[in-house]
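Z., the sequence and structure:
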Amino acid sequence: MDILSEILTGLRSEGIITGRFTLGAPWSFVKNPVNGAPFRIATENPFWVRVRDAAPVLVQPGDLIVLPHGDEHIMSSAPVDDAILFDKLLVDMGICPLPNRPLAFRAGGDGPVTDLYTGIILYREHRRNPLLNMLPPMIHIRAADITPWLMSTMKCFIEESMACQLGWNHAAACLADLLFVHVIRIYLQANTENICGWLRGLSDGQISRSLLLMHKEPQREWSVDALALAVGMSRSRFTARFQQLVGESPISYLTAHRMYIAAEHLAAGKCRISEVAAKVGYNSEKSFTRAFRRWSGVPPRTYLRSSPVAEMQL
């Protein structure tokens, strides 16, 4: 298995929130930051989206946008500098979203209507996710660049999320995983010159193999010497090349990867802390606790008690 497949295998959503908004111009609202990756698909008429301080982007019907970092953003029928908070819009309309149910409503004026299908793929520690944090604030895939397979997945997702038949939430989450994998593939193929971090490391056969080794065997007692030997490089050449391409030292990358895996085990709640420590290469629970606290800001026991997915709305 290649390193990208290895990481994508671990990129499984913890849930999904979906909705359909029928919006007549003029309309606009601000979405607060979320712990997940929102995506939007529109039909009928275009809309505008502005992420943080970037310039507004026109999204045509059939286009797909994904916000890998879950940043605050404004969506509107025309470019605006400010808008009503989405939560306040719902309150003003007397709408109370129900858990595990798609949110559907009609709002705005009497102008051209935009049908907006929307969702949030929920990921724990999404800002530390090794793939998500390498991506830009927004990925915009135009309708002309969407493959037939991706279009089919998008249609299936919309149908599943809105039909609410038995098992719809699980089916929609699985489709969202597939949707996200195809978005990543299209983005990487179109942006080979702009990628950075470990994604850039994939361009070098030996560095890519070292990344795969760390991902496949995080519990192994890796050292720089052992990694260099495993990929057929001298210690100094391997260290310099890894730093140049990935942007950090091999051990720094390995530690961050181990902590991300540990966070997943802790969130699952099926292992004792000492067992989690062993799974990521630590013989001492004390040493693991120090490393985890530096990475997450809280000790493992506190993290273990935290809610697996924060409450959020579309």
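The radius of gyration is 21 Å. Residues 187 and 217 are 28 Å apart (CA to CA).

Let me know what you think.
H.
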